Amino acid sequence: TLTTLNLVNNQIKDEGVKYLADTLRTNTTLTDLDLCGNEITSKGARFLDDALQKNATLATLTLPSYYARSNNIGDDGVRYLINALRNNNKIIILNLNYNIISVEGGIYLSNALRHNTTLTEFNLTYGQIEDEGTRYLADILRNHRTLTTLNLANNAITAVGAQYLANALRDNAILTKLDLSSNTIGNHEIHYVAETLQTNNTLTSLNIQHNEIEAQGIKYLADGLQRNTTLSIFNLVNNDIGDEGAQHLANGLRNNTALTEINLVNTQIRAKCAQYLLDALRNNTTLIKLNLLSLVSTAHGLRPPMLELHDHIRQSNASMRYFQTRNEEAQDQVDASVDDTV
Q1: What is the SS3 assignment for 128?
Q2: 95, β-bridge pairs
Q3: Do 229 and 255 form a contact (C-beta atoms < 8 A)?
Q4: In this structure, which topology does domain 194-342 adopt according to CATH?
Q5: Residues sharing a CB contact under 8 Å with residue 135, sequence separation 6 or more, in sequence order
Q6: What pLDDT digit, counting tens, does each position of 172-201 carry?
Q7: CA distances for 306 relative to 251, 272, 276, 291, 334, angstroms
Q8: Taking a C-beta distance cutoff of 8 angstroms, is the pair 248, 215 a contact?
Q9: DSSP-assigned beta bridge partners for residue 323
Q10: Where are the beta strands (DSSP E) in the chain?
């Protein structure tokens, strides 16, 4: 019995969706449908809407536009799909990444989510909802009882939108994964998110890579980490936190007992400042993965502090399994040390 149908990167277009929708109306077995990259527009979304209101089994609908033959359902397409969100009580994952969905579409989606009681994962990467659209989604987050994963990466969200979300998370007790990567929250304004970390006890994964965060922003976040007891995965890739930021982060790690994975790729931390992290990790016994790719080499070289950090981890943090750095000589040494412990 067919339960998964993957039609990625074909050219079925709206006409093909029409025939597919006719089948969906009466199908009772399909649970996962992927229509990524099929040149589907709002017209095709309308066909799907009508079918999904009658379908009682489909749980995952994927309509992103990763490929050359992109979908572009836009705000008009969203207007049709929201009917399915309101009336279909089976869909749990909705993926609309890379569609041109603006503030208007964000409002439509928010209104639909207000009445939806099943959706657990919503992906809207590379939309254009901006701060205003984020405000409407944040209002829904306050009281939504099923959504656990929200991906709003690359949506032109600034400090204003971050504040809306942070305020909502104070009341939300369900969301566990939040992706705000590649927005422009900013260095000082990240304190809205940091303050939420101090009181939120459900969020386990936070991705804020590439958000123009520097040392001061890391200080705010480190203060939040000292009081947070649930965040497990923290992504800070491509933020210019530098040596001062590394020191602040180390302070936040000293007494944190929840984090298991931190990604610090390309954060402008110099190799010699690995000492800050080393000192912090003397007291940390829960971190499993530390990614320090693209550390900035200094005249003192990269290998000595990295090897010292790894040796410490091997001796005092038995839980650490993944330790990465980008320097062939240093990585060879670290890998050899890992092999010795296996």
Answers
A1: strand
A2: 62, 123
A3: no
A4: 3.80.10
A5: 161, 164
A6: 999 999 999 999 999 999 999 999 999 999
A7: 19, 9, 12, 12, 8
A8: yes
A9: 290
A10: 4-6, 32-34, 60-62, 93-95, 121-123, 149-151, 177-179, 205-207, 233-235, 261-263, 289-292, 322-325
The pair of structure tokens assigned to 289 is 């993965």
Residue 55, token pair as written in the block:
């379908």
What interhelical angle do 74-87 and 42-52 show, nearest 10? 10
CATH of domain 1-184: 3.80.10.10
pLDDT tens column, 206-242: 999 999 999 999 999 999 999 999 999 999 999 999 9
The predicted model scores a pTM of 0.89
CA distances to 110, 158, 194 from 186, rounded to whole Å, are 25, 7, 12
Domain 1-184 and domain 194-342 have a common topology: yes
Q: What is the dihedral of CA 187, 191, 196, 199, to 10 degrees?
A: 130
State both tokens at 313.
């981890």
For residues 107 and 129, give the distance between their C-alpha atoms in angstroms, rounded to a whole number. 9
Q: What is the spatial distance between Cα 332 and Cα 96, in angstroms, rounded to a whole number?
A: 41
Domain range annotation of the chain: 1-184, 194-342
Confidence (pLDDT) at 317: 56
Look at residue 102 and give its three-state secondary structure: strand
